[in-house]
Amino acid sequence: TYLTVEQALADYAALLAHLGVPVVAVGGSYGGMLSSWMRAAYPALVAGAVASSAPLRFDAVGPSFFRLVTEAAAAEDPACPGLVRAGFDAIDQADFGLCTHATAEELVLWARNAFTTVAMGNYPYASDLFGKGLPAKPLAMACQAIRDAHDGGASPSQALAAAVGGYYNATRSVPCHDIRAEFRTCSDQTGCGSARSPWGSSWDVEACRQIVYFTSADGVHDMFPPKAWAWPELASYCRDKWQ
């Protein structure tokens, strides 16, 4: 009942009414969506809104997300997408320092999540927002890691592991990778954080119920293994997970 966009806006409106002064709403991603909707729904309380990276047209998200991640990687290093593709084509979990065996799909989605996350958090300054210990320009870091490993004679899978490990072990304190703790399967293919993220389940619900978009990878226009994620896949996942 309460985990809805409308309830979130109403909560903010109650706070702003208590404060009694007009404000400018500011947000990024989902927060950016909320800031724009606050301005539209409560114009007497919100004098303006700044919506950063806020996909208000969900129909445009699905066809473009993984392509844009790939283009961002190419902007950091033109060789990066090709090296990532080669790594996924030859992926071998023995190269990734896993604590326990993982399924092939778990391994691919966990590794893919490293690139999508550093692309979304590719700020020109260090930040823990998208992962502890991440340096400035973490996507550039990932592309540099895969290139250095490749140039040093590593196999394609080992080179991919170097880039992925640079994200999941940015603090250099992780003895082995527990995929089921570091990655959360989610209705939103752009990511729901780790299994430890307190917000992950709530976003999973919203991405099933209200913030609905489809993000397939095709391996042609992007650098990731093909994975269809349209209405049939999303509906099946949401039914199995939340009904």
Highlighted features:
globular, mainly alpha, 5% strand
Word description of this protein:
The chain is mostly helical and 243 residues long. Helix content is 49%, strand content 5%. It contains 10 helices and 2 strands, in the order αβαβαααααααα. It has helices at 5-19, 30-41, 65-76, 80-89, 104-120, 138-151, 156-168, 179-182, 200-209, 231-242; strands at 23-28, 46-52. A two-stranded parallel sheet has the order 1-2. Helix 1 (5-19) crosses helix 2. It is globular, with a radius of gyration of 19 Å. The two termini are 15 Å apart. The mean pLDDT is 93.
> Got a strand count?
2
DSSP strand content = 5-15%
Beginning-to-end CA distance, first to last residue? 15 Å
Bulk shape: globular
Mean pLDDT score, rounded?
93
Cα radius of gyration in angstroms: 19 Å
- Largest sheet descriptor: 2 strands, parallel
The sequence of SSEs as H and E is HEHEHHHHHHHH
User: How many alpha or pi helices?
Assistant: 10
Strand neighbour order, sheet with most strands = 1-2
Counting helices, strands and paired strands, the structural category is mainly alpha
Catalogue the unreliable spans: none
State the share of residues found in helices, binned by percent. 40-55%
